[in-house]
Amino acid sequence: MRCTSCGHDNLPGADYCDECHATLMHDDLPLARIESAIEHSLSEDKVETLNPVEALSVPEATSLHAAIQTMRDRKIGCLLVTDREGKLCGIFSERDLLYKVAGKVEDLADQPVSSYMTHDPEVIRGDQLLASALQRMMVGDLRHLPLVDEHGRPEKILSSRDIINYLAFLVEGILEPK
């Protein structure tokens, strides 16, 4: 959001300018239009609207060492874990690594990721509403939500960052129309 006093480009939703500290809260801001756009988007748009990224999955027998190395190499926060039929059976995230592995497991190469993953994670399909995805993520305190096909095979992954960026894009379009 551009400051009308100094022209500094601030983050959408900021109350005061980071540069000159002038108020960014003006009576003429279209708050009702913002609320309406967000409400409409959540209740009408499908999860696939956010273009979630392709899911990276590993078999449940993958070692912790290999799983962690894959996450580091790809710079990702989670891996989806699949069973022998390729169906999603778990998710291994940074949270699992911190709470279940760090300081507790000595030989990462001898331990399967399936012993430390979150089993039977919440999932969603791409044709479901954004409101459903957001509700599942908020209630479950989830940063990642796997998208699966009709057979339970992982396809994509939705992150909380995807939703935040999408909503910021909506708000920015209202605040700074082209």
Average pLDDT: 89
Helix percentage: 25-40%
Question: How big a fraction of the residues is strand?
Answer: 15-25%
Strand order in space, largest sheet: 2-3-4-5
What kind of sheet is the major sheet? 4 strands, mixed
CA radius of gyration is 20 Å
Q: Please, how many helices?
A: 5
* Global shape: elongated
Structural class: alpha+beta
- In angstroms, what separates the terminal alpha carbons? 13 Å
Question: Stretches where pLDDT falls below 50 for ≥5 residues?
Answer: none
Element order: H for helix, E for strand:
HEEHEEHEHEEH
SS elements, strand count: 7
List keywords for this structure.
178 residues, alpha+beta, elongated, three-stranded antiparallel β-sheet, 7 strands, 34% helix, 5 helices
How is the topology of this model organized?
Blueprint: H1 31-44, E1 53-54, E2 57-59, H2 64-74, E3 78-82, E4 88-93, H3 94-101, E5 118-119, H4 130-140, E6 144-148, E7 154-159, H5 160-175
